[in-house]
Amino acid sequence: MITVVLCADEGYVDKAAAVMASTICHSETPEALHFYLLGYNLSANTHQQLYQWFSSLPASLTIIDAENNSWPELALGRFGPAAMLRLGMHNWLPMSCRKVIYLDCDLVVLDDIANLLSFDMQNAPVACVANLQGTDQSRMGLDYRNYFNSGVLVVDLAGWKARNVLDQVEQILKQHDYTLDYPDQDALNLIFPDWHRLPMRWNMQPYAYAAVEKSVAHYADWQEELGHATRHPAIIHFIGSRKPWHANSRHPLTDLYRHYHSLTPWQPLIRYSSPSLQQRLKHALSWFKNRRRRQRLQVVPVMQLPSLKKDSPT
């Protein structure tokens, strides 16, 4: 069994469904996939929609209502309670779960997710990809090479539980007066300094493009790996304030995310706004750059969900 964990509230459950759709599309053994969705205030209608959808798919799903009275205290800025549910995943997942894959809701999977479990974690409690740009790790005494992005995690649940993650995160946030830019990610980096580094392609972040195109000096040792990630991404992570469900998204692979969203029971949800003249000019200028970046992609995505294989009548 391949256990995949996601977290969502009503505002993100359709995004979680898009992630699950892309994961199923690219799995060589979709019947082995079991998704656990840790839900925050999900409606009965949402439960029904998801279970009805999965009744036609080879993968399986369990929705866990993971509300907890402490979550509102951790709802900081743009990060709501649902984003924090993973911190207590060991409390809600079955005892039979030993190693799990956690995925954020703003990504698409373009490779067999089972391959993530084939890496030797060398007894580390978590395996993940280094974070690219966007955070000032030095404020926590960490070098940029030693700070990971927490959007894709392979988790040894025994090691996670042994670190008492939930309580430690709450203590760290209080120590920093709840001012950390990325509350749970920053805290997890302090809790797991012994994380195991995965190849960049398993969490291909937008800055990888610029790092390769501009030959960014402090990523000199990673140039070859970053170039490979942009050509053969296994997971594309849409980090940043402009998400693929926003009308002004400028990520070169936005349409891929929107396609996998279209395979879910939810209608396309694009948030439109009135762009300024400056924004329209930037969007026009970025078109050529994005076309060049799309042309780097050498992966051929699987665009259709597999049908449920039913037993032949005897």
Structural notes for this entry:
The protein is an alpha/beta fold. The protein has a single domain, classed as Spore Coat Polysaccharide Biosynthesis Protein SpsA, Chain A. Helices cover about 35% and strands about 15% of the residues. The chain is built from eleven helices and nine strands. The strands form two sheets. Strands 3-2-1-4-7-6-8 form a seven-stranded mixed β-sheet, sandwiched between helices. α2 links the parallel β2 and β3. α1 crosses α10, α6 crosses α7 and α8 crosses α9. It is globular and about 50 Å long.
Largest sheet: 7 strands, mixed
Structural class: alpha/beta
CATH superfamily: Spore Coat Polysaccharide Biosynthesis Protein SpsA, Chain A
Instruction: Estimate what percentage of residues fall within beta strands.
Output: 5-15%
Shape: globular
Mean of all residue-level pLDDT scores: 88
CATH topology: Spore Coat Polysaccharide Biosynthesis Protein SpsA, Chain A
Helix content: 25-40%
Give short descriptive properties of this protein.
314 residues, alpha/beta, two-stranded antiparallel ribbon, 11 helices, 15% strand
Task: State the gist of this model.
By secondary structure, the chain is α/β, with parallel strands linked by helices. It has helices spanning 13-25, 44-54, 81-84, 89-92, 157-162, 165-175, 183-191, 207-213, 223-231, 254-262, 277-296; strands at residues 2-8, 33-39, 60-65, 99-103, 107-109, 126-130, 148-156, 196-197, 235-237.
What is the fold's blueprint, element by element?
Layout: E1 2-8, H1 13-25, E2 33-39, H2 44-54, E3 60-65, H3 81-84, H4 89-92, E4 99-103, E5 107-109, E6 126-130, E7 148-156, H5 157-162, H6 165-175, H7 183-191, E8 196-197, H8 207-213, H9 223-231, E9 235-237, H10 254-262, H11 277-296
Parallel strand pairs: 1-2, 1-4, 2-3, 6-8
Antiparallel strand pairs: 4-7, 5-9, 6-7
Helix pairs in contact: 1-10, 6-7, 8-9
